[in-house]
TrEMBL record:
Its EC number is 4.2.1.109. It is an enzyme of class 4 (lyase). GO terms for cellular component: cytoplasm. Belongs to the aldolase class II family. MtnB subfamily. PANTHER family: METHYLTHIORIBULOSE-1-PHOSPHATE DEHYDRATASE. This is Methylthioribulose-1-phosphate dehydratase. The keyword Amino-acid biosynthesis applies. Substrate binds at C96. Keywords: Amino-acid biosynthesis, Cytoplasm, Lyase, Metal-binding, Methionine biosynthesis, Zinc.
């Protein structure tokens, strides 16, 4: 299937991205990227966000200033056919598209965030070998007994409903160990797909995948969960790096 062929003329395609609702995916992606830019997550055109809205996948264009995007810049893909139903003529879809699709397919995610946060990059340089499983995903970021771990769900899309006693169902507890696999970077973003999918399969409880010397992919059942988990992870990555600098062990 040729996903890059120009779409057939569809007068209704713009209706997919035009809305006065700030939470409409086309508006929401533009807004999130502006916020993430201030955190250094999507600097210099790197990183990005995708949202699944029913059977429609919203994707940002490739190689653009992510904080300057407009709703009309968005690509829309039909999730079932994997064909673009809206394709801005002068732009290409994000090279992260196969990675975002992996989160939708393997975790039933509703949103996936890719950051180039320096804390994520630094922590990939400090992660130790996973000696228990030397055959596949070789490296793992693990941390426990830090309160912010409770902001992360099992598998990334676990329920965050509050159970009796105030416990968040599906979320990790203070004494649980958070484990995030680290995969090696590739020359081209789209070539990360196979190793990212392998890491997701090998670590079904992981809510994210780190990419060495590159950044992190984080997902959630919806935008709120993906965003808050990306925030919790960035907090933990930074904490781990700072602890390392102070000579403290984080595991
Ligand atoms: C600074 S270029 C970064 C890209 O190669 C890539 O890593 C990335 O995250 C964004 O890809 P894009 O195709 O612009 O959405
Ligand atoms: Zn990237």
């Amino acid at each position: 299937m040729d996903n890059t062929a120009p779409p057939e003329k569809d007068e209704n395609a713009d209706a997919l991205v035009l809305s006065t609702d700030p939470l409409h995916p086309a508006n929401h992606i533009s807004d999130l990227c502006r916020r993430f830019y201030t955190l250094g997550w999507v600097t210099g055109t790197g990183g990005g966000v995708s949202i699944r809205h029913g059977d429609h996948i919203y994707l940002a264009p490739s190689g653009v200033q992510k904080e300057m995007m407009q709703p009309t810049d968005m690509f829309v893909m039909d999730y079932r056919t994997k064909k673009y139903i809206r394709q801005p003529a002068v732009l290409k879809p994000s090279a992260c598209t196969p990675l975002f699709l992996a989160a939708y397919t393997h975790r039933n995610a509703g949103c996936c965030i890719h950051t180039h946060s320096q804390w994520a990059v630094l922590v990939t340089l400090l992660c130790e070998s996973n000696l228990q499983s030397p055959t596949s995903t070789r490296h793992l970021f693990s941390i426990k007994e830090i309160e912010q771990i409770k902001g992360l769900s099992r598998g990334g899309t676990g329920s965050s409903e509050i159970a009796e006693g105030g416990r968040k169902l599906g979320n990790l507890g203070f004494f649980d160990t958070l484990r995030i696999p680290v995969i090696e970077n590739t020359a081209h973003e789209e070539d990360l797909k196979d190793s990212l999918e392998a890491a997701m399969r090998e670590w079904p409880e992981a809510c994210a995948v780190l990419v060495r010397r590159h950044g992190v992919y984080v997902w959630g059942k919806d935008v709120v969960q993906a965003k808050t988990q990306a925030e919790s992870l960035d907090y933990l990555f930074r904490l781990a790096v700072e602890m390392h600098g102070l000579g403290l062990k984080w595991v």
